């Protein structure tokens, strides 16, 4: 069974409710028809009657729940939650606490408070935001327990998908930031876990330090084991193996490995490793003798967003490997992004992945 078929079967076995906020795109409805036909998830589609009628033409979305953001009977509940989370009083209180923790001067503290107050939403601003950007509406539905996850990005940028999630759902306790991975299913490949790999971070963090790389390694290992069901072996990648090159970029990765081993003692991680040393046993033995990961890595943590994004696209295109993602990790509730070049089947797969993440949260 192919990876995505297994994920879809798992989603169907314990159906979750997933929100699709992009009713302005026909691909949403093509995917919705397939999801509903497969009985894989309960779907909520956010859109006005005009948007739904125009873009769903020709597709059977019987069984989907349609939520009109202008006439939803639950709308006031979501507005109240938005104000609770992002209202002026909440934002000012958070700014004061942050200023105190940083030891800011009185003048700096007041500036921070003023800036926070400007960012705070009123009920009117909350309603306007929800009506003009349905991703905010989707995240509020998740926050209030009316949905288990959301999928967006077919016609919006990664930033448009992540910002509402960060503001309203926030990260898991103890997690400093969200990161994104792709799951690559490489055909006719005996490397990794029979051709299955996680590549991270390929979508979110433009600037990573050693601490963040270590956290990405931990989250990526958890994601690998959640989706693949095999032990993760994490390689922290570089153009150097075990100090074969000297540069601040190499030091950053080596320090990340040290932090990860100290902070997450059960994590199987090593580096810094060149890609061939991470994947090919003979090269790994030569360049990193004694490594618990070299030659057997299945979870690849790239040293920068640039390297990760280029790396996954090379494998996707040259090896004709299905690439699922970017899947977001670190959020308190599952929200996932799509490539704007996605097709309906990509949306179906991402909904299945989101449902499996929701299952994991529900099961503790």
Q: Overview of this structure, please?
A:
This protein has helices spanning 3-13, 26-37, 49-55, 75-86, 88-102, 106-119, 123-132, 134-143, 158-168, 210-228, 248-263, 275-279, 281-287, 305-318, 344-362; strands spanning 17-20, 42-46, 65-67, 149-152, 179-185, 196-200, 234-237, 269-273, 299-301, 323-329, 335-337. The model has no long low-confidence stretch (mean pLDDT 91). The strands form 2 sheets. It has a 6-stranded mixed sheet, with helices on both faces. A 5-stranded parallel sheet has the order 3-2-1-4-11, sandwiched between helices. The radius of gyration is 22 Å and the shape is globular. Helix 4 (75-86) runs parallel beside helix 5. It starts with a helix and ends with a helix. It is an alpha/beta fold and 364 residues long. It has 2 domains: 1-87 and 122-170 and 331-364, Rossmann fold; 177-328, Isocitrate/Isopropylmalate dehydrogenase-like (Rossmann fold), CATH 3.40.50. Helix 3 links the parallel strand 2 (42-46) and strand 3 (65-67). The longest helix has 19 residues, at 210-228.
Tell me briefly what this model is.
The chain is an alpha/beta fold and 364 residues long. The chain has helices at 3-13, 26-37, 49-55, 75-86, 88-102, 106-119, 123-132, 134-143, 158-168, 210-228, 248-263, 275-279, 281-287, 305-318, 344-362; strands at 17-20, 42-46, 65-67, 149-152, 179-185, 196-200, 234-237, 269-273, 299-301, 323-329, 335-337.
């Amino acid at each position: 069974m192919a990876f995505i078929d297994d994920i879809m079967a798992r989603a169907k076995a314990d159906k979750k409710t997933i929100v699709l906020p992009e009713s302005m795109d026909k691909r949403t409805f093509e995917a919705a028809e397939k999801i509903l036909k497969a009985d894989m998830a309960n779907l909520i589609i956010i859109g006005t009657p005009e948007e739904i009628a125009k873009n769903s033409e020709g597709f059977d979305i019987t069984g989907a729940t349609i939520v009109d953001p202008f006439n939803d009977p639950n709308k006031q509940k979501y507005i109240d939650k938005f104000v609770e989370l992002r209202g002026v009083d909440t934002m000012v209180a958070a700014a004061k606490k942050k200023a105190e923790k940083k030891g800011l001067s009185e003048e700096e503290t007041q500036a921070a408070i003023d800036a926070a107050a400007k960012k705070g939403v009123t009920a009117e601003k909350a309603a306007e935001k929800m009506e003009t950007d349905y991703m905010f509406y989707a995240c509020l539905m998740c926050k209030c327990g009316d949905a288990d996850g959301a999928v967006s990005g077919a016609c919006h940028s990664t930033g448009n998908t992540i910002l509402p999630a960060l503001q309203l759902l926030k990260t898991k306790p103890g997690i400093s930031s969200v990161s994104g991975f792709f799951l690559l299913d490489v055909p006719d490949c005996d490397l990794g876990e029979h051709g299955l790999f996680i590549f991270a971070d390929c979508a979110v963090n433009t600037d990573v330090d050693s601490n963040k790389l270590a956290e990405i390694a931990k989250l990526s290992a958890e994601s690998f084991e959640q989706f693949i069901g095999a032990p993760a072996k994490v390689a922290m990648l570089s153009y150097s193996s075990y100090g074969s090159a000297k540069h601040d970029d190499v030091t950053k990765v080596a320090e990340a490995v040290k932090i990860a081993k100290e902070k997450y003692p059960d994590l199987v991680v090593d580096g810094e490793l060149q890609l061939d040393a991470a994947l090919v046993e003979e090269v790994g033995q030569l360049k990193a003798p004694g490594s618990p990961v070299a030659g057997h890595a299945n979870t690849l943590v790239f040293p920068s967003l640039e390297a990760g994004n280029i790396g996954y696209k090379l494998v996707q295109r040259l090896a004709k490997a299905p690439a699922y993602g970017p899947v977001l990790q670190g959020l308190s509730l599952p929200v996932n992004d799509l490539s704007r070049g996605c097709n309906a089947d990509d949306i179906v797969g991402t909904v299945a992945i989101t449902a499996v993440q929701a299952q994991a949260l529900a099961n503790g």
